[in-house]
Each structure stands twice: as structure tokens, then as C-alpha cells.
Amino acid sequence: MVSIRTNLEKVQEKMASACRKSGRKESEITLVAVTKGVEPVRILEAINCGVKEIGENRIQEADSKFGLLPQEVRRHLVGHLQTNKAKKALELFDMIQSLDSLKLAREINRRSGEKKVPLLVEVNTSGEAAKTGIRPQETLDFLQQLAELENLIILGLMTVGPLTDDQTVIRNSFHTLRNLFEQAACLNIPNCKMEYLSMGMSSDFEIALEESANMIRIGTAIFGPRN
Ligand SMILES: *Cc1c(COP(=O)(O)O)cnc(C)c1O
Question: What is the rounded distance in angstroms from the CA atom of residue 48 to the CA atom of residue 37?
Fold first, then answer.
């Protein structure tokens, strides 16, 4: 079996080369290791190799594993969140990358307690029916609607690229998110600071980096295929 360390080094080499290609600095890219379906011992191994941010897509799975991980690892929710699990998600995660409805936003705002909740808005840039996320043409309005929810802090946008091998289709999808990110940054919404453009997974992160992603979410390329 190929080691996590070797896999990570390969990902980092590809990140470096994609950055060189588009004149960017590697230091501005945040790597989130997506640990869904991965046993805690293997997550710990990745952490030992320098992983500082991890992503999970299910509350229950995260809850069963997070207690075994060091406190300082940053935890991202990258999967769809049901409104009735918002409270639990706030206990478990440092950032929720999958804000995809006003109903969920209101519930998170209500449950937030003392501290402001860092979130990314998920946009369905591919238009695939199976994917969650706000429609691109509704995203800027959505951000404006969030302005009144004072306990939220919107730190950027997230998307999952289309399920295809067609590089042009994938690139268009990422380009759409990048345009929205730039437009959103100009709106000057008080609780909205466009810092993170989260796009790119194992199969498409190099395209995402060329399209200005500064946060990529990698599972398979680090941990190998999931069961
Ligand atoms: C599973 C998942 C990833 C990682 O996918 P890989 O193809 O294994 O790299 C990234 N983002 C989200 C939202 C995911 O659900």
C-alpha cells in the first residue's frame, strides 16, 4: 500500500507545479484533507505528516472520530447539513463550508451562541440535480440576505466540480465560482469577507488552482480509494 506521506508529497508537488504555472504562491493555498471514510489512526498519520486542516461530510462520523484527534487541527464540514443538526455541527466544526439555504443560515445564526460562525456558501456551479448549493445566478442575492444574520461571518464560496472528464466543463464551473467570488467581494456586505475560494478535489484540483482556488479539499489522493 502506498503511504500517506508519499501521497501527500505527490499532492504537494502537483500543487507547487500548478502554482508555478499560474504565477501563484503555494503559501497562499490551504489544503484540507478530506477524511470521510478514513480511520482515525490514518488521519493521525496524515496529521503527523503536516496536515493541519481536515474535512468531514457527515455529523455522526465526525462526532465519532474527532475526540481522537489533536485539538489544534482545524475541522471543516464539507457535506450537506440538515437544519436539525446545525447545533451539533457548531459544536464539532471550526468552519461550515456547505451553507446552502436561508433556513439553515437562520438556524445557525440562532444557535451560534457567543462566537461568530465562519461559513462558506456552497454554490452549485455544475447545475447537476444531485448536487446541493445555491444557484450561481442567485448567489449574490443570497449573500445580501445573509447580511442581517449578525452571528454569521461569510468567509467565501465553495463548489464541487462537475462529474465529468471534460476539462473545459470543469474549468467553466470553477471560473463561474471565481467570478462570483470577485463580484461578492465588491458588494461590501458587513458580515461577508471573501477570503476563501474553496474548489478542487483529487481529480480536478490543478484546474481549480489555475482558476484561483486558495483552498482545495483532497481525500482520495491522500488516503487512497474509499470503500
Ligand atoms: C469527498 C469530498 C471531497 C474529496 O474528494 P476526493 O475526490 O476524494 O478528493 C471534497 N469535497 C467534498 C465536498 C467531498 O464530499
Answer: 19
